[in-house]
Amino acid sequence: MHILSAAQTHELDQATIEEQGIPSVELMERAAGAFAEWFARHFTPHAAGETLVLCGPGNNGGDGLAVARLLYQAGYAMRVALLPADKQSADWQHNRRRLPKAVPVAEISAESLPHIMPGAVVIDALFGTGLTRPLAGLPATVVAHLNTAAARVVAVDIPSGLFADAPQPADSIIVRAQHTVSFGLPKLAFLLPQNAAFVGQWHLKEIGLSPHFLANAATDWHYTDAATVAGALPPRPKFSHKGTFGHALLLAGSRGKMGAAVLSAGACLRGGVGLLTAHIPGCGYDIFQISQPEAMCLTDTQADFISELPELKPYQAVGIGPGLGQEAASLEVLRQLLKAADKPLEKTGQPLPLVIDADALNLLGSHRELLKLLPENTVLTPHPKEFERLTEPARDDYHRLELLRDFAIQYRCLVVLKGAYTCLATPTGELHFNSTGNAGMATGGSGDVLTGLLLALRAHAQIPAFEAVRLGVYAHGRAGDLGAAQTGQVGLVAGDIVRHIGPALSEV
Ligand SMILES: NC(=O)C1=CN([C@@H]2O[C@H](COP(=O)(O)OP(=O)(O)OC[C@H]3O[C@@H](n4cnc5c(N)ncnc54)[C@H](O)[C@@H]3O)[C@@H](O)[C@H]2O)[C@H](O)CC1
Ligand SMILES: [K+]
């Protein structure tokens, strides 16, 4: 699914109106209808009580007026407060005329701000994607008033005062909504941690926007949902054998961190790899062999950490990092691996696929001269702190995305920035935000599981690099969601994610 800028969203509206030959108020009616339907499923008229709709002067306010009418007709007690303006949009005026006389309407002024009881339900339709500058003056006063009222706020399309697609001053006045009901496509702003307190839970409503425009819109921002990855995993042919799905090598573990190697290996096996060999320090032999009998195991001459790179010939992909530690000898192994992997393989003509995580990323961060050795399409899986060590501290979430994109382009690699909406950056500068996963996955070992799964998918001969990583990130989150459905988010551990990789992959 695409993510569009605010300007493109406006073009999308126009394209839909022209293509479908409908008046623009019809599209507004669809949006308001979708919002009212969501609202009615969440609040009964009794639970909502008297519901206040705050309306601005543009089409977002027009949506609000239409919502007030529809909910009034559905039996809700409604009242409307209008922000004064020199001019209102045509569709606003249309819906103002259609508002039943029985719905009380007040004009807002600094002296008469709407009365809001604690716990009252308020629909925020002040500003939408047409916002051109941070709120100031009366609109800012109204929003600040709403934010201190401890109301239950549902935003129409986007919380008022929030830019849909761009950074804004840190002290901007923005509605703090519990829910945001948005139309058509997710907005980039919804996916950034810095906006979570404003957006609350967001919900997407289909309103029949032009599929033609959506398919052809030029954007670098994408949202990976079930439809995106459907069919990405080739069916396992009847006459396949273990060689068909690749032989992966995992370099992982150190004393006290063998669990990382075990979890990562488990995920790789559940990810459908043909064969897995783990190279681990001597101390981990019993632990590893007992807990992962399906994997083969090579032990390092060092007991506590990895100091040797095995012969790479047998392998179709290599993962390095989980529980690795940052010993000087392990740094040398990483250096040798990067150099050895950069030669094109006979079979594919591509460099040996690599997945680099955890301490291997930290080693790259402290020895940045190694970055230029990264073979094309290497997969890096940093969390924001690890990513900062590779680049620089980000001013805010938008700046971090900029750094991420630049990094992926510069080093021609696939960077998976882990978070609530894990973002995959590609060498061509695209950003793909993932839709699956939950807060229960913020737990030790979850990243090791992702590494193992990505390793399995990179070893698969029939899945191109980018598709493998997008699929792996999606399936990892989905496995976490399936796991949490059984354990709850609080009780979820990384092993639960491993156990649900199989079901998650069968879904796609
Ligand atoms: N995507 C859809 O698919 C549909 C969206 N709809 C709704 O329309 C709004 C966007 O409406 P638009 O008229 O373009 O903009 P706004 O209502 O957000 O506001 C524009 C209005 O406000 C003025 N303005 C802008 N910034 C400020 C500011 N900081 N302070 C004061 N005034 C400001 C501007 O000059 C205009 O007068 C979208 O979000 C949806 O809710 C449609 O209903 C159809 C489907
Ligand atoms: K709004």
From TrEMBL:
Cofactor(s) demanded: K(+); Mg(2+)
Record key words, sorted: ATP-binding, Isomerase, Lyase, Metal-binding, Multifunctional enzyme, NAD, NADP, Nucleotide-binding, Potassium
Record-listed AMP binding positions: K418, G419, A420, Y421, T422, G447
PROSITE patterns assigned: YJEF_C_2 (PS01050), YJEF_C_3 (PS51383), YJEF_N (PS51385)
Binding site for K(+): N60, D124, S160
Cofactor: how and how many bound: Binds 1 potassium ion per subunit.
Positions bound to (6S)-NADPHX: 59-63, 128-134, 157, 260, 323, 383, 448
Catalysis: reaction(s): (6S)-NADPHX + ADP = AMP + phosphate + NADPH + H(+); (6R)-NADPHX = (6S)-NADPHX; (6R)-NADHX = (6S)-NADHX; (6S)-NADHX + ADP = AMP + phosphate + NADH + H(+)
EC number(s) on file: 4.2.1.136, 5.1.99.6
Every YjeF C-terminal domain range: 225-508
Domain YjeF N-terminal stretches: 9-215
Quaternary context: Homotetramer.
Function: Catalyzes the epimerization of the S- and R-forms of NAD(P)HX, a damaged form of NAD(P)H that is a result of enzymatic or heat-dependent hydration. This is a prerequisite for the S-specific NAD(P)H-hydrate dehydratase to allow the repair of both epimers of NAD(P)HX.
PANTHER family assigned: ATP-DEPENDENT (S)-NAD(P)H-HYDRATE DEHYDRATASE, ATP-DEPENDENT (S)-NAD(P)H-HYDRATE DEHYDRATASE FAMILY MEMBER
Family under the similarity heading: In the N-terminal section; belongs to the NnrE/AIBP family.
Protein name: Bifunctional NAD(P)H-hydrate repair enzyme
Gene: nnrD
